[in-house]
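Shift notes (night). Ran Enoyl reductase (ER) domain-containing protein while the centrifuge was going.
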Amino acid sequence: MATNGYSNGGSTKGKPIKCKAAVAWGPGEPLVMQEVEVAPPARMEVRVKVLFTSICHTDLSFWRGENERQRRFPRIFGHEAAGVVESVGEGVEDLAPGDHVVPIFNGECGTCAYCHSSATNLCGTYRVDAFKSTMVSDNGTRFSVVNTSGDTVPVYHFLNTSTFAEYTVLDAACAVKINPAAPLEKMCLLSCGISTGVGAAWNTANVSKGSTVAIFGLGAVGLAVGEGARIRGASRIIGVDINPEKFAKGKEMGITDFINSKACGKPVHEVIRELTDGGVDYSFECSGNVDVLREAFVSTHDGWGLTVVLGIHPTPRMMPLHPMELFDGRRITGCTFGDFKGKSQLPLLVDQCMQGEVKINFDGFITHEMPFSEINEAFRLLEEGKSLRCVLRL
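Came back to this:
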């Protein structure tokens, strides 16, 4: 079977594969494009040929080693991607070689109490774990590399995915089979950014038609929240950021009002309350800053306002809220992967996009496209705020 120029023919099934990967050897060090060996998938695992991958701020955070517990190297980062199943391990029944898949960092086994519950999209075994760096079945790795001393050493995994490699091994619970007609260079964004933001508006907040929304942080996730709110018919979508250069892109993506939090002359929540007659119905914190989180919380209307936390908070600082403030009727909640159950619900979303039933502006998020070999340049663009999503072609 040939798919997007990829053909397996069974020649590599059950055998190690040598391929190129971008290996991180230490925090903040440039990624090294080098040959790695990728072991065959073990029981309930799949090996995937990665065709497209993109870079998220979470990759940057872990690469920098902002939290000491995250510093496990060498490591292969990356968690937004799309590709084709090369082979499957024992026990895998829902995936087969040639299937088009999107890796997800928040897995779904489909059998545990969590997966059976409609109240959560977490899984008892395969939920996201920021500090996990090995496979579930044996706590081992499927990557190895020869270091500068000539020794073969294990290379650690990242967020259940490790997509900065031509081939990767995933738990089958972390691979979503999608419509083979869907363009993989766009579908890779469903691995994290778009699913997280759109899902936060749809599933977590359940934004209603005619409501008001404030989004704190206009990166890819924040803009995806805006997409979700726009599709749901929000009447006013306020974008807040310290970088006014992001406002043009925000307007393109459907955000109606903008606040430069560094230049507004008063606390942002006061500005928002004035704009919206007492506060917005929903606020979304996408910056990972606890001070911004407080502004997001108090920018909502008392009595019914809801704040959804999406930002990654690497510091040990606690949430700056007093318990008595919750008695004003404002609520706050976190959101993982947009509260989508990945394997159950993403295939339907892809089909709806393909059929035109849901119109998500995938192209608006892709600001750069590059070959995989230029991954360090892609990191630089994201770090400097010059890109939303750079899609790398492997």
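The longest strand covers residues 45-54. DSSP finds eleven helices and 19 strands in the chain.
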